[in-house]
Specification:
about 475 residues, alpha/beta, Rossmann fold, Serine Threonine Protein Phosphatase 5, Tetratricopeptide repeat, 3 domains, 7-stranded mixed β-sheet, 3-stranded antiparallel β-sheet, 10 strands
Length: about 475
């Protein structure tokens, strides 16, 4: 086999092509390529030729290399991911958001005036930016004074780097009305730059819907009012789609909305939602559910498997233990998560403050964890200065704790301080250097050291791309 050029047929005949394909589909969920070997082999062959490799064995060796593998997987994903999108794709979806979804959410949040949106599989950003233009241009009067946070996530970090820049080719604006182009963009040669006021409140984050956990308070993926995931799940298996929809359900606050692509509805997958029909689109709403604080002997179903340096060790598996079997702090932190999962941020903050009062005279790691949770909650409440203060306090109390450094990096990046964010992420890598790949951290939603190491590496590379 030639090192400089491959045909698809040559690569498909490689003894390890099948293993490479299975590994790739498993890590990305792109079952779209299950029966499209010619297309996939052509793209993989391009990477082998570029690297000067002669077969799939040598390429698998590169992908498994802890130093170079993650970056090469990103490069391969950039070549195979289906990331084509454009502004105001399926205009009827945005009409439904304007006429049905946003009025409902505004009525629900009239007291706190805060909304959180997630664009999952956002490619290079037209979808989250379209949401920003919609709420800032077409609903500016009604949303004046509101805090609206829009998060875009994707598996392709190269697309995310372009999204951060907010610059687009003419093709991405093919469905954008002329008046929106005039009011929201600045043309620079053949490129269009989105004006700063329409980029404010929009952030981007690397996330793999297949490999990375969600909901996840630690990764800022919880209690959304709206999740938009269009033309993404059609590339996954039906089982993967069904699981993902349940995860989206858990990521929504009560009354939150899910919007999927026109080719994705499968009513058997949306039984937990209330179905709402609007002109040209089907919407899915999470029903309201009564909520009360935890009972004295109750633990939430999604409570993480804690691992902490205190009597009792890990929580026993199986049925929830009686309250006296679990330290009071664990019940308190579980209650914080329970409130946070439902978007009850004020209640979560009060719970943290109550725990801090109880732990005030203690000088151990428990105090660090409470400050960490308090920082997460305050960030969601748009109280960035206080959130940073709590996270830094958590770091001061336990400098070996990984998660406060990680989330502090996320917070600093979102607040426009890339150099400080990079330092926090570098601290995380230093702390991870002595950890085994399979180690799972307390409060990290099941993320392993290897997974966290990759996430942090991607964040650092994205910050460098923006510099």
């Amino acid at each position: 086999m030639r090192a400089s050029l491959f045909t698809a047929d040559e690569l498909i005949c490689d003894p390890l092509y099948r293993r490479l394909k299975e590994q790739l589909v498993a890590s990305t969920g792109l079952a779209y390529y299950e029966d499209k070997d010619a297309q996939l082999a052509q793209r993989i062959g391009g990477r082998l030729s570029q690297l000067g490799l002669s077969d799939c064995t040598s390429y698998l060796d590169v992908l498994s290399n802890p130093l170079h593998g993650p970056a090469e997987l990103d490069a391969l994903i950039a070549g195979i991911a289906i990331g084509e999108t454009y502004f105001f794709r399926h205009r009827e979806h945005f009409d439904a958001l304007r006429d049905v979804v946003l009025p409902d959410l505004m009525a629900r949040h009239r007291h706190d005036c805060c909304l959180r949106f997630w664009s999952a599989g956002c490619a290079d950003g037209p979808e989250p930016y379209s949401l920003a233009i919609l709420q800032k241009r077409e609903m500016a009067d009604r949303l004046r004074g509101w805090q609206v946070a829009i998060l875009g996530t994707d598996i392709n970090r190269h697309s995310l780097a372009r999204a951060h820049r907010g610059e687009f080719e003419e093709w991405a604006l093919r469905s954008t009305p002329q008046e929106v182009r005039r009011d929201c963009f600045r043309q620079e040669g053949t490129r269009w730059s989105l004006l700063p006021e329409y980029r404010e409140g929009v952030s981007f984050q690397y996330h793999n819907l297949v490999e990375h956990p969600f909901p996840s308070l630690v990764n800022n993926l919880a209690a959304f009012d709206l999740i938009v995931c269009r033309n993404v799940m059609i590339y996954f298996t039906s089982d993967r789609m069904r699981k993902m929809i349940l995860q989206f359900y858990d990521c929504l606050a009560p009354g939150g909305w899910l919007l999927v692509g026109p080719a994705e509805p499968n009513m058997s997958c949306f039984k937990s939602f209330r179905t709402v029909n609007a002109p040209g689109v089907t919407l899915y709403q999470k029903p309201d559910q009564p909520f009360s604080a935890l009972e004295a002997n109750e633990l939430p179903a999604n409570m993480p498997a804690f691992s902490f340096d205190s009597p009792g060790g890990n929580l026993p598996a199986g049925l929830p233990p009686q309250r006296e079997e679990v330290p009071e702090l664990e019940y308190g932190l579980a209650e914080v998560r329970r409130y946070a999962d439902r978007g009850a941020w004020e209640d979560a903050a009060r719970c943290c403050e109550g725990l801090l009062k109880k732990e005030l005279l203690k000088k151990d790691k428990a105090n660090s964890r409470v400050h960490f949770y308090h920082g997460l909650v305050l960030d969601q409440m748009q109280r960035g200065i206080e959130a940073e203060r709590s996270l830094r306090r958590s770091v001061e109390l336990d400098r070996r704790s990984v998660l406060p450094h990680y989330y502090l990096g996320l917070l600093l990046r979102s607040r426009g301080r890339p150099a400080h964010a990079a330092r926090s992420f570098e601290h995380v890598l230093e702390l991870l250097s002595g950890r085994g790949d399979a180690e799972i951290f307390a409060d990290a939603d099941g993320i392993t050291a290897a997974e966290l190491r990759k996430l942090v590496t991607v964040h650092i590379e994205m910050l460098r791309d923006r510099a």
